Amino acid sequence: MVFLLDRYVEGTCYLCGFEGTRSDQCNNCGNVLEPEKLVNPRSKEGGALELRETEHSFTI
Ligand SMILES: [Zn+2]
User: pTM for the complete prediction?
Assistant: First the structure.
């Protein structure tokens, strides 16, 4: 699966459950995160990530 640059994606930490964390490091618990494990990832720039993921899944 292709993600946007990590720093443009945020979501829910899969370690502590904090919502709105960065995808590379949690803003709350400070652990380094693997972006592909992030819960409910979304783009910081307007939430278009879900649509882009859908496009990818159809084109691949
Ligand atoms: Zn966390």
Answer: 0.63
Helix ranges restricted to H, the chain: 49-59
Tokens of 4: 């946007």
Strand partners, 42: 10
C-alpha 6 – ligand 1 centre gap (Å):
16
pLDDT tens track for 11-53: 999 999 999 998 889 999 999 999 889 999 888 765 555 555 5
Report how far ligand 1's centroid is from the alpha carbon of 14 (Å): 7
Q: Give the start-to-end residue ranges of the domains of the chain.
A: 6-59
